[in-house]
Known about the structure:
six-stranded mixed beta sheet, alpha/beta, Rossmann fold
Amino acid sequence: xxxxxxxxxxxxxxxxxxxxxxxxxxxxxxxxxxxxxxxxxxxxxxxxxxxxxxxxxxxxxxxxxxxxxxxxxxxxxxxxxxxxxxxxxxxxxxxxxxxxxxxxxxxxxxxxxxxxxxxxxxxxxxxxxxxxxxxxxxxxxx
Length: 142
């Protein structure tokens, strides 16, 4: 059963920005499909943190994401995405500072490496932003 209150705190569902890590391209597409199908939310923008290798896979994929503007930040997998939580926290804080004036931010803790999720969770909690996890079937508000 879907939790209809997951996105209730959004003031403007038509002006959202998804922020998160990208590890599994197919899961990300499923997440966007479920957002639209189950809640009528089509993010105006998404900002993702990933490795150059996953970004390349994302670009090569046959993804129907034309409705959503994207910004993808690349970092080395070994030195940053697997280890440097402090650097990732700074990156997420800088991104949020740039976009929070123009968009409702949904922080997706689902994708990317554990340090990416930990860093985003930390900054999102500090800034009191909506945090979600997508199980592959439904959304969980954190």
